[in-house]
Amino acid sequence: MTPLFGQFTRSLSLLTPLLAGLTLVIMSLLPLDLTGGWLIVPALPLMAIHYWGLVRPDLMPPLAVFFIGLSFDILSGGPVGLYAFVYLATYAVLLSQRRLILARLMHQPWVGFAITMGIACVIGWLAGSVVARQALSPAPFMVQCLVSVVVYPLIERVLHFLQLRIQRELG
Amino acid sequence: MLTRERKHRTLRIQGTFDAIWHRVALFVLLVLSAAFLLLSRSEAQFVTDVRDGATDFLAPGLALASEPLNWIESGVEQVGALASLYSENERLREENERLKEWQHVALGLEQKVARYQALLNLKPDPATAVVTGRVIAEAGGPFVYTLIVNAGGGDGVAVGQAAISGSGFVGRVVGAGDAASRILLIQDVNSRIPVVVEPSGARAILIGDSSGQPRLDYLASTATVNLGDRVVTAGDGGLLPPGLPVGVVAGEAGDWGVLPFAQSAHVDHVRILRYDFPRDVETPGSAAVATVPDAVGESLQ
């Protein structure tokens, strides 16, 4: 392996969590009806933020979270800054409870994500209601929460696979 | 020994510095996000340009990626349809019989309306050109309900135009790049559509509230509205053509909502109406007549 190629793969490994988050942003925009007419897609980018925030927070810094949220805001057509704010606030709570989650729910990643998703839904509902200047219906938030928690184990496997590759690369 | 201690101390200081930096960055970015949110209320042109550019840039990739998903969805639908083939056939047969009866009624009414229009010398509505686009992306979240279609400014799509599916009104164009455009659905919290409730003719504003059932607001207290009444676009403001079917009244008195005809999650293609509202309305004192779509061209003598 040439030093240049080695440097490239190392940089790619460092950027993998961010790239995974951005890929999930694009995936969440693809038209696939999973909720029987609700037009609500799972919070895929939040899955990347949750996973890397717990496992390798050094590779998912606040700037990466901000960038993922802002990309989603711009591409989805929603108020700019809303998802960036919700993801950052959720990330802040997640980091503050990181040790606890890792210690207690190490073998139940699904439960850990359910907690993160619940926090994101509450923050999202509050922030969204303030921006819209009306109390938003909580039903879509609950549906998204449920759909996301159901889908998470699938995405978690992919993210875990990526993490093993990164670990091998970075040592 | 001393070197190791020094190394440990350096690492500890580095760790503390990292943690502080992490928190400061988090706080600054949270404030920045909140500032973006405040600015986004003013709908700055810069934000619109960035959105349209990003949508245009990603449109080919999204179109490519959405293709197999469409196949999967239609495959699943077809398998589901196979299971209920017989009952569906029976239902369609009955519906066809009913529609044939309605066709006779409609043809009779069409002739009658044409006769009356000729008698009144009514100016016909301007013809509306249509652009059909495939849905290549949809943002479905509690905050935002939008679709991205692969038809944009290059095809004549412009901001404000109406988008309809086979079942009814879906939403309006809020951003148009060269190759793709963004449609704000009627379920979105930012959607405001002037509508008319038929048959009473009561006017209202249809407001999205992030549920699947937008609500009817600004209804006159004397307006007569009943469950199941048909709701169509009013055409007020000149952006949308009047009479596009939106949905039926649902909910209860005092808190009326509308169940849309077009269920957004099942929309694969939309037609964008290039409606050109005639704007040459005369100023008072001049001789000519307003050329709004439903206006009478010449007064009865």
Secondary-structure topology with pairs:
The complex is a heterodimer of chains A (171) and B (301).
Chain A lengths: L2 H25 L16 H12 L6 H15 L5 H15 L1 H7 L4 H24 L6 H32 L1
Helix pairs in contact in A: 1-2, 1-3, 1-7, 2-4, 2-7, 3-4, 4-6, 6-7
Chain B lengths: L1 H39 L4 H39 L1 H36 L8 E12 L4 E5 L12 E3 L4 E8 L4 E5 L6 E7 L3 E6 L7 E3 L12 E4 L11 E8 L2 E6 L8 E6 L27
Antiparallel strand pairs in B: 1-2, 1-12, 2-5, 3-4, 3-12, 4-5, 6-7, 6-9, 7-8, 9-10, 10-11
From the structure above, extract its key features.
heterodimer; A: 171 residues; mainly alpha; 7 helices; globular; B: 301 residues; alpha+beta; Thrombin, subunit H; 2 domains; six-stranded antiparallel β-barrel; six-stranded antiparallel β-sheet; 12 strands; 38% helix; elongated; disordered C terminus
Structure, explained:
The complex is a heterodimer of chains A (171) and B (301). With 171 residues, chain A is mainly α. Helices cover 76% and strands 0% of the residues of chain A. Chain A has one domain (16-23, 41-170). Chain B has 2 domains: 1-38; 43-83 and 121-301, Beta Barrel (Thrombin, subunit H), CATH 2.40.10.340. Chain B has a 6-stranded antiparallel β-barrel with strand order 1-2-5-4-3-12. Mean pLDDT of chain B is 80; it is low at 286-301. At the A-B interface, helix 3, helix 4, helix 6 and helix 7 of A face helix 1, helix 2, strand 1, strand 2 and strand 5 of B.
